[in-house]
Design brief:
The chain is α+β, with helices and mostly antiparallel strands. The protein is built from two helices and two strands, in the order ααββ. It has a domain of about 30 residues.
Length: about 70
């Protein structure tokens, strides 16, 4: 991995560290995530009752095509 060094005014550097700390990330990870753009939020899996066994199973995700063999 390449190392990149930046020169920032003291107030900008302090602000960057504060924002990274608030997000509970390192400064490097914070900058990486900001540069990669908005993250698509993952939906939590839905549970449904199996019609055959009555057990709780994960429901199909409506964002994906159905599996076919």
């Amino acid at each position: 991995m390449k190392k990149i060094t930046l020169k920032l005014p003291d107030d900008e550097a302090r602000s960057l560290r504060v924002h990274a700390r608030e997000a509970q990330l390192t400064v490097s990870e914070f900058v990486r995530r900001k540069l990669s753009g908005p993250q698509k939020k993952r939906s939590t899996p839905l549970l449904q009752k199996c019609r055959y066994t009555g057990a709780m199973v994960f429901a199909a995700n409506p964002d994906y095509l159905p599996l076919k063999s």
